[in-house]
Structures are given as structure tokens and as C-alpha cells.
Amino acid sequence: MPDAGHTTEARPNRRRRRPQSNPPRIVLAIGTLGLGGAEGQVVELARGLHRRRWDVHVATLIEVGPHAGALEQEGIPLYQGHFRNVHRAAVWDALAFPKRFVGYVAWLRRVRPDIVHAFLFHAYVPSVFAARLAGVPMVVTGRRSLGNYKRGRRLALWVERVANRWTDLVIANATAVADEVHAEERLPRHKLEVIWNGVPPRFFAVPDRAPSGVTTLLCVANLIAYKGHADLVAAAAMLARDGVAVRLRLVGDGPERGALEAQARSSGVPVEFLGAQTDIPELLADCDIFVLASHQEGCSNSLLEAMAAGRPIVATAVGGTPEVVGDAGVLVRAHDPAAMYRELAALIRDESARHALARAARERAMTHFSLDQMIDAHVSLYKRED
Hints:
Rossmann fold, 6-stranded parallel beta sheet
């Protein structure tokens, strides 16, 4: 597995850049600052750069969201682009877009950043063109997941490929994600780097759990079909039919909640639907095994957090999960509730195996996925590219 930040080809000569600000000035752009994993990573990167005395600005192109408070406490300025309005029809957004885009370009010209680093499709596509029109010397975009959502959307892929021509560098959060970007977006390898996500220190301080006699399975993921919750509920039902005292706790919300609640009722398995939560360390402290049944995955933040907390991992071998977990967890086929059931049953019966996996998970997280490592890798890359 290649190291984060690896380079696979020699880089071409770059355009001449204006002298960098002192301290360096960077704009981190994203659609919203909601409770998603990518949003959390942007906030942590902004705070980390700010504490390293970078001049950091954050641009939210759609709406702000609950993470904004953490940035305001640090004194990090926020720009609101209002490219979309969730309370109006899509036609209004289309008509308003040119004005919003021009305003974004004007703001970038006033701020004069040395770097614009944009995350997620709806932010990095307009940010690339806006940054170039504003004369920003370095433009970076991020890929945080596999691109399945673009399949069948030829216009989106075409626009993305055009934006890539104007982008200096694309940072993926897993090698599997980088490989897909290279194949699907036809992005040259010299424009691709890998930097894994970072886990905040509070997750490494989660205490060990005293046995309670009931095995608690925890999954933290939005309730959308490709996260595989239906497979997980089916596996938990198999455990219950075997007489295993188990409860399944699902953190997250989404369109599949109703169907999953009906499935849980019909199968008779105790499932707790906790909705969106912010105090994940507390939930991890009350967890025996962390489970992720995704059908596709980039680099799951919740998986990294569970590893840092020293929880045994059972996850599907999709996307970036195998490179993240390594030998520190149990991997099973996706779309296979029976395989998930068998591995969970074996792990529940083997306390020593659970303890060994818990130790291995925490050690691997400490070695590869600390927050400082993620921030330092970005700083090194920004400076190297300058």
C-alpha cells in the first residue's frame, strides 16, 4: 500500500506564481459545514492550519451548517456563497448562479489567497473556474468518496474533466479513490496524491467498556441504501435467532430509515435508531463491535474513529476500507448478510480475538490516521507544490 502523499510520475513545469503571502493564505471551499465526514475533515484541517499560523478562510458555497461555530471560535473567517437555496425551486438557483459566481470571483480577488482547496463536487467544480478567473496561483481539489453518484451523468463527468485541466492537484483520501479518479476522470497520475483522513485526539481517549452480557453492535453511517444497513439488520436477526444476546445501534439518518425500521420489526431483532448524533466517542465507549456493511466506500471517518477508540472492526471489503483496516479488523464480502453473521458470531464467542483486534485497530490508527499526520501531510504538499 503506497504511503499517503506518494508521487508516481515526474511533474511538468508549472506556471510562474506570484510571491506567496507570509503567512500563507488559503481558502478551503465546500458546499456546507454539515455533520458529514468530509465537512468534519475540512473543519479540522482549517483549525490545524490556523494553529500553525496560516491565514485561513473557509468558503461555504451553499449554506453554513452546524460546524460553523467551531471555526468562528477560532476566529476563522467564513464566506457564504448561497449558490443554492433549499427553500426555492431549482430554476431560481439556475437564474441566480451567474450572480453568485461573479460574487465568489470578486471575493477571491479581494482575499488574494495563495491556494484554493475545494472539496466535494458542488464546491470544487465552480471553485476551480472562480479561482482561475481570480488569479489564484494554486488550485487543489479533493476527492472524498468513490464516484458512483456520477455514473450515467455524462454532463457532470464532462464538466469535471474540464475543471481538472485547470486544477494543479487532486488529493484523494484513499488509494482506491485515487485509482478510480485516474480511470474515470482520466486524470494524470502526476496530478494525484493520497492523504488519509485524520482522527481527532478525543477518539483515542475513549475508555474500554466493561462487559454487560449483551453484545452491542454500533454502525455510524447515513441511512442510505449503499451503506448496507439492510444487510446488517439481517445479520443481526440471524444472531438473535441463534440465541445471541445482541443489540444493534444505528447512528445516522436518511431515506432508508422507514424501510429499516419495518425490517427490524418484522425480524424481531432489537435495533435502536439514534438519528444524527454528535457525541460519537460516548457511543463508541458503549460499543463491543463496530460494524460497517457498505456496498461502496471511500475512506470512512466513522471507521477510523472506531479504530482509534480501540473497537473490534467487522466491515465489508469495498473501496478504501481494506487499505484502511489492513490486518486490524475482519473483512467480509459486501451484499452478504450470512458472511457478516458468521464473522460476528465467531468474534462474539472469542473474547481474546476481540481484544487482539481492538489493540491492533488502535495501534494502526495511531500509526497512520492521527489528525496531526493529516494536517502535516497537507502542509508539506502545499509547500512542495508552490
